[in-house]
Amino acid sequence: MKMTWVHKLLGKHSKKFYGILAGILTAAVAGSGVGYHVIAASGTADQTEEDTQIDETDEDGSFSGTGTTQVKTESQLPDFSVNAVTMTVEEVYVEAGSTVAEGDALFKIDDESMADAKAYYEDAISDAKTALQSAQINFESGVLEAESELSATKLAADTAQDTYDAAVSELSVKTSEAQEAYDEAVEEISDYQDAIDNGTYYTQVGIDEKQAAVDAAQAALTEKQTQLSNAQSSSQAAKETYVADMANLKTQIEAGASYTDLAALADQLAADYTAVQEAADALSQSQTEAESANSALQLANQTFQKAVEEYNTKVTEANEKIAELTDELEKLSDACDEAERNETTAQPALLQQYEEAVLEGKYADTEYEASLETLQSAVDEAQDTLDELKEQQSALLEIEDGVVCADRDGTLASVTYEAGDTLIKNTAFASYYDLDTILISVEVSQNDIAKLAVSDTVQVQISGSRMGAIDGTVYSIASEKTSGGSMSNVTYAVIVAVDNTDGTLTTGVQATVKFETQATGATEMEETKTAGKIETIGASETEEAGGKTE
Which of 13, 191, 300, 350 could form a disulfide with 213 if both were Cys (CB 3.0 to 4.6 A apart)? Predict the structure, then answer.
C-alpha cells in the first residue's frame, strides 16, 4: 500500500504506541460512527491529557478551555446485526495506519458464524412474515370492529335524548323503590314485635291446651296408681288368707278332724284360691292401666315440651329477624338518601353523558379514521421490520466467503477486531481518518456546561497559527462527567470541530477555545443542556469503537 503522510507521521512509533493511542485517545460519537485520534508528530498521550485545561469563566459569561488538535475519524459500521448469533473473526488482513481502497479485505468471519447468521435471518424473516400476516389479519378484523364502533357511536348519538330521559326516569323509580324497601322493613319489624308482645306465637303452638293435657294425664295416672295400690293390698290379703287356711287344713288333718270339718276347710281353701286368682287378675289389670296412664302422661309432657321449644324458637327467630332488620334499616336509610341525592345531583352527569354522546357522534368518523390509521401503522411497522431484516440479510449475503471489505478509500485509524474476537453490537468494523475536520476536546465545568448546545459557534485560537482566531462548532457534549468528585470541580468533555478541507491545520497542537455565551437562568440552562447535548461513548465503549490496533 502507498505510504501517506499519516504513515510517515506514525511509522516511527511501535505497535504498543498504536495501542496506547487507540485505547486512551480514541473517542467516538454514539450513533454517528465518528471519533477522533491524536496523530501528533511528537509528544505522548499523557502530555495530551495535561494540555487539556478546565475552562475559565469571564465576567461577561464567556469562558475558555484548552485542548489539543486531533484528527476526526469516521467509522465503518455493520449493516446487519452482529449479536443475533455469535460471530467470530477468523483472520485480520490490515492494521491501523494502513491505506486501503474501497473493496479491500479487512478481516474474515469464520464460516460457522456466517452459516449461523444466515440461518438466523432466514428464521427471523419467516417470523416477520408471520407477524406481517397477523398484522394484516388484525387490520381486517380491526376494520370490522371499528365499523361496528362507528355504528354504535352514531346510534348512541341518535338515541342520546331517549337514553337521557330513561336514565332520569330510572333515578326516580330507584328513589321510590328505596323508600318502599325502608317502609317494608319498618313494618316487618313492627309485625314481629307485635307477635311477641301479643302472645301470637304462644297461641299458635297451643301452650295452654298442651299444659291442660299434661294436667289431665297426671290426674288419670294418680287415680290409676291408687287403684293399683288397692289391688296390690287385696291381692296380698287374699294370698295371706289362702296360706292361713292351708296351714289350718294341714293341722286339722294331722289332728284327725272329721271328714265334715275337713271338707268344709277344703271348700274354704278353694274359695280362698279363687279369691287369690281374682285379686291377681285385678292387680294385673290395674298395673296395665297405670302403665298406660304413665305413657299418656309422658306423651303429654313431650307434646308440651315440643310446644314450648317451638314457641321459644319462634320468639328467638322473631328477635333475630328484628335485630337483622334493625341493622338493615341503616343501610336502607342510606340507600334512600343516596337515591334522593342521585335523583337531584346525577342529572348534570347524565346531561354531560348526553352531550358527550352527541359530541362523539359528531366526531365518530374522525375516530374511525384514526383507528384505521393505527391498524395500518401496525401493518406498516411489521412491513418495515420485514424489509429491514431483508436489507440486513442482503448486506450479510454481500459478504462473500465471510470477508468484510473496506467501504471507502482512506487510511485506517483503527481496526476493531483481532483473530478470535467476537463481533460486538454497535461497534465499528474499522475507523478511517477524516483529514477534512480537526477536533479539539475541552473540559467544561458543570457551571458552564448548561450554557452550551451542539452546533454553537465558538472561537478557536491554534498555537503557532498566523490565522488568528477561527470559527469552530460545538460537535458534541458528553452526558457523563469526566472528572471531579465534588460539585466544585466536576467537568464534562466538549468536542469542538474545525473545518480543515484546505489541509492547513495540523494535529497535536495546543488550541484555546473561547465559548462566547451569556449566562442564563437555572431553568433555561437545564433546558439548553438537555436539548443540545448528545451522548458520547464512554471509556469502555471507546476501546470497542476505536478497536484494537497494532
Answer: 300
